[in-house]
Amino acid sequence: MLVVLGEDHKRLRNLALALVTSTKLKPSYLGDIEKIALHIVGSWHGKSKDKGRVNVIAFCEEARKFAFSVIVKQVLGLSPEEPVTAMILEDFLAFMKGLISFPLYIPGTPYAKAVQARERISSTVKGIIEERRNAGSSNKGDFLDVLLSSNELSDEEKVSFVLDSLLGGYETTSLLISMVVYFLGQSVQDLELVKREHEGIRSKKEKDEFLSSEDYKKMEYTQHVINEALRCGNIVKFVHRKALKDVRYKEYLIPSGWKVLPVFSAVHLNPLLHGNAQQFQPCRWEMENRWR
């Protein structure tokens, strides 16, 4: 969506909106996410110990597994326990390693491995699409059903969109979750406030009852923590845009053909816009909401 223009961009944008809409309208959407979270956390028990003393958990890697599992479940209808999910994840990790490597196709290089991994993912997804077609109307309610009902895209484009969906949510979501944990680890007070908020909501639920959308709406301080983690962490450092025609912004003229690189941290960490801009302070968002 960053590189296509005109009708192609409109078509992909509509498809992306359909992904979000179809996912959030599913009654099982939040339950699926909770099950995956519990599955990931449950897998930590019995992990190998470092010198026999403490369990070692590479949290960022676990957050990546979580984000990947959620996307695969919503897009392809696959659960984390299914063997094909692990197979796609392995190939996807190889793809990610070579994504920004030097594009030299020599066997054994990260780029060559990425190209090969993408071909395997493509083959796997095509197999899932073919299997779904042969089964007739699956009514699984996942995004693959939406993709299969579209006549505007070829099978190759559908496979590409699945891969783009994984790519778009995998790194950013997992990094945000990791940064939230990191920042809360530096602030006992904020961690206590988040725990109190969550425990208060959980105390009103039955033992095996999943959280609802109304429960998530009550997590106001949690949302402040997420907003502040985004501000301090700046997961997406910048975006790149090209002026298709002369653009005048305030006293500046951006000529047609020039490229613009807005750097988000220049705004997010600007002390003129945020008091104590270098400090993690979720409470600042309470004041922000009062002014709105």
Description:
This protein has 292 residues and is mostly helical. It has a domain at 6-42 and 57-185: Cytochrome P450 (Cytochrome p450). The protein has 12 helices and 6 strands. It has helices at 6-24, 29-42, 59-76, 83-98, 110-134, 143-149, 155-185, 188-202, 213-217, 220-233, 264-268, 284-291, and strands at residues 49-50, 54-55, 241-242, 247-249, 252-254, 259-260. The strands form 3 sheets. A two-stranded antiparallel sheet has the order 1-2. Strands 3-6 form a two-stranded antiparallel ribbon. Strand 4 (247-249) and strand 5 form a beta hairpin. The radius of gyration is 22 Å and the shape is globular. The two termini are 31 Å apart.
Summarize the topology:
Layout: H1 6-24, H2 29-42, E1 49-50, E2 54-55, H3 59-76, H4 83-98, H5 110-134, H6 143-149, H7 155-185, H8 188-202, H9 213-217, H10 220-233, E3 241-242, E4 247-249, E5 252-254, E6 259-260, H11 264-268, H12 284-291
Antiparallel strand pairs: 1-2, 3-6, 4-5
